[in-house]
From TrEMBL:
Shikimate binds at S24, R25, S26, T71, N96, D111, Y235, Q263. Residues 126-176 form the Quinate/shikimate 5-dehydrogenase/glutamyl-tRNA reductase domain. Pathway: Metabolic intermediate biosynthesis; chorismate biosynthesis; chorismate from D-erythrose 4-phosphate and phosphoenolpyruvate: step 4/7. It comes from the Bacteria. The active site is at K75. This is Shikimate dehydrogenase (NADP(+)). It is an enzyme of class 1 (oxidoreductase). GO terms for molecular function: shikimate 3-dehydrogenase (NADP+) activity. It comes from Cupriavidus laharis. Residues 16-97 form the Shikimate dehydrogenase substrate binding N-terminal domain. The lineage of its organism: Bacteria, Pseudomonadati, Pseudomonadota, Betaproteobacteria, Burkholderiales. Keywords: Amino-acid biosynthesis, Aromatic amino acid biosynthesis, NADP, Oxidoreductase.
Amino acid sequence: MTSTESSSQPADRYVVVGNPVAHSRSPFIHAAFAQQTGEAIEYGRLEAPLDAFADTVRAFLAEGGHGFNVTVPFKLQAYDLADRLTPRAEAAGAVNTMWIEDGLIHGDNTDGIGLVRDIQDNLDTLLEDKRVLLLGAGGAAMGAMLPLIECRPSRIVVANRTASRASDMLEEFVEAADSFGVELWGGGLDALEQLSEDEACDVVINASSSSLHGELPPVPAFLLGDGVLAYDMMYGAEPTVFLRHAAQCGARTADGLGMLVEQAAEAFYIWRGVRPRTAPVLADLRAALQAEHKG
Ligand code: NDP
């Protein structure tokens, strides 16, 4: 019996809301979690018109929807819509997971914790006392900052194409970094040239959308050498241009598919109180992605 065939009760309804949303892998992931845990849920896609995110999700909730994920381009609007925000959603300034509790719309951001779990649990790289380089200062980078800081790395360097955006983002996290004993530093991508070889980072995370455009951020080769984990939040059947370059420089590489599965697992846990196992779902999703690519 699958989760949606539960004999006694109708399945609880969840969706991912975006525009476009047809490409979303979330239904695959949540169906696998439901099957694995026996939770009676059904999870679909809901495309909201670009100018009607709030109306669309309110209608979904009014029709009995239990919760939803939010993807591009609505994560900021979801933040505005929430009656209650978790601290990590507040810090991220964006929301990707919503649900109703005590009659109020709650919003969380599970992207950053998804990233951290993928790096620490799936890729066996503990971040405590490590140096982390974060490329980018957009929504994904904002969402990653607090969960990264909470891992107590010794230093986080942020480098972004637009230097002022990196500085603004760093400013937001000074207090949190101080309380966890994390040194923050950064600026434009050219700031990376100021780093000496003994300031190389252990983990380099591409949280920019450069790979989406097939472009390579100008990261000095010594920052991607032996012993470094190079992580690109973007994922696909083939390694991104950033990951290909990092591998040539000697780094170990990983794409963001694990982050996607881990952020979904956290959302599933929030909604259902059950933590699914992610490794088999990640393996199945990877296989599906590659099969589609070959086919
Ligand atoms: P945003 O549009 O919010 O931010 C884009 C960022 O990328 C900005 O910092 C921008 O710099 C920078 N950028 C864009 N083009 C280039 C380029 N050619 N060279 C260098 N930097 C560039 O996007 P998001 O933060 O939402 O997403 C970033 C990436 O993370 C995407 O690839 C997305 O797919 C991925 N992602 C993956 C997730 C997962 O679960 N695996 C979850 C969320 C995001 P500037 O400020 O100068 O414009």
